[in-house]
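User: Hi! I'm a student and our assignment asks us to look at how structure tokens line up with a sequence. Could you show me two examples?

Assistant: Happy to help. In each example below, the sequence comes first and the structure tokens follow. Example one:
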Amino acid sequence: MVQVLTILHVIVAIAIIGMVLLQQGRGADAGAGFGGGASNTVFGARGTASFLSRSTAILAILFFSTSILLAYLGARQDNKGQDILETPVSGQVKTDLPPIGNQPLAPPIKSDLPDQPPVLPGGK
């Protein structure tokens, strides 16, 4: 059920992106007044804009519905009684290093650069 709903959710999201990209901007109508020929289209002068906007609104409602339904199903999903904060950590991380407290300090690194004079409090 969740897999089918997730696939539907992705398809609706891609369809919304396509619908938004198909729509013309507000400034595109100005060219129709100078012989754009928009009245000779299949949907009429304003038919494509209203069809695309209605389709986008329907897809948006479907997208939000699947989002809410997926969130609801995800919250109800049984995690077999395990909380990630309550899982034991022992035995999961294995290293061959000794504990940090038992390690000796590393010797200072020798450098070829000359020693820097101490900085005076006045900055000079």
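Example two works the same way, sequence first and then tokens:
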Amino acid sequence: MPRAPIKIPLSQLARGQRATVECCALDSLPNEHRCLLAAMGMGEQCEVRVCRPGTPCIVQIDQTRLGLPRDIADRIMVTPIESKTP
């Protein structure tokens, strides 16, 4: 039986880690924050890469980098993407 994917706050990822933003991950944020993040490319099932953990948490989505305050990064749930090792 396959295990359910692990969901953790975006703020817990380390530099270089990639993750997928979970469905409804942004629902706990105020509407104006959700709209702003969506306009910058962060939506359900998008892939993010952590450029710099901490405050601000800097993530990359496609070619866009976003600096997120800790309280926002704490509330965005993601599923880490396993790195492929040869």
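Here is something you could point out in your write-up. The chain has one domain: 8-80.
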